[in-house]
Amino acid sequence: MEKGRLIVISGFSGAGKGTVVKKLLEKYNYSLSISATTRAPREGEVDGREYYFKTVDEFRTLIDYNGLIEWAQYVDNFYGTPRKFVEEEIAAGKNVILEIEVQGAMNIKSQYPNAILIFITTKDIKTLHERLSSRGTETPDVIAKRIARAAEEAESMEAYEFIVVNDDLDTCVDAVNSIVVSEECKKENNTQFLIDIKKELEDYSKTV
Fold first, then answer.
1. Lowest-pLDDT choice from 64-68, 100-104, 152-156
2. 3: number of Cβ within 10 Å
3. Do 36 and 69 meet the contact criterion of CB atoms below 8 Å apart?
4. Torsional class of 106: left (φ above 0), alpha (ψ -120 to 50), beta (otherwise)
5. Is residue 99 within 8 Å of residue 113, measured between CB atoms?
6. Which of 99, 109, 183, 201 is deepest in the core (most CB within 10 A)?
7. Of 30, 16, 32, 28, the residue nearest 174 (C-alpha)
8. How far apart are CA 70 and CA 111, in angstroms?
9. Is residue 101 exposed (0-12), middle (13-18) or buried (19+ Cβ within 10 Å)?
10. Cβ–Cβ < 8 Å for 163, 122
11. Each residue of 164-182: pLDDT tens digit?
12. Please, what's the largest Cα pairwise distance for the chain?
């Protein structure tokens, strides 16, 4: 069985990457790796659905026992990717989406060279600020921290293979899926298929 691929989706806080991921799961056949975090749940979020919500001590235990593929600290909280689920899904041939921060994405790429790195952004800073403010869940101080962090993350955008602007949600979602499909169709990702089809054609030609 062909192994699955890792699709790493990062982006500025407020760019809508979480909504993009949700739509991808609804419309296309992806598995989602649920991250662990020490931040408090937002209204409507459920443990084990949006995140595994952990205390700082619980999170540090996961680090100590190598239970995370990657982890990073972001705006006073920790985020990480549990190892077991991801590796089981890939082995079963499923494409797995990881919605993670820039630091974690670089760690993923070093461990899984075939991972597809996609960065989601707004069209400009004005739109980013409007989306953060419209959440109604963060203080002006936290919004300022997120904007400052976005400036830092922008320095890492060049490390991503694909940049997708989330101006229209459906267009953005379809663009991300098209990227994954095009990567799967690349010649270098179909080496075994080329060998097999050539062999089949060669064997068939001997029988006619």
1. 100-104
2. 14
3. no
4. alpha
5. no
6. 99
7. 28
8. 10
9. buried
10. no
11. 999 999 999 999 999 999 9
12. 76
Residue 10 burial (10 A CB sphere; 0-12, 13-18, 19+): buried
Classify burial at 142, counting beta carbons within 10 Å of its beta carbon; exposed 0-12, middle 13-18, buried 19 or more: middle
Who's near 193: CB < 8 A, 6+ residues apart?
A: none
Cβ atoms 128, 14 nearer than 8 A: yes
Q: Locate tokens 């595994």: which residue? A: 52
Among the listed residues 102, 84, 118, the one whose alpha carbon sits nearest the alpha carbon of residue 6:
118
What are φ and ψ of residue 106, in 5° steps? Answer: -65, -35
**Total count of residues recorded for the chain:** 208
Nearby residues of 72 by Cβ (< 8 Å), 6 or more positions away: 78, 79, 80, 100, 101, 102, 103, 104
Please give the Cα distance from 100 to 79 (Å, whole number). Answer: 8
Q: Is the pLDDT of residue 134 over 70?
A: yes
3-state DSSP percent of the chain in helix, strand and coil, to 5: 50, 20, 30
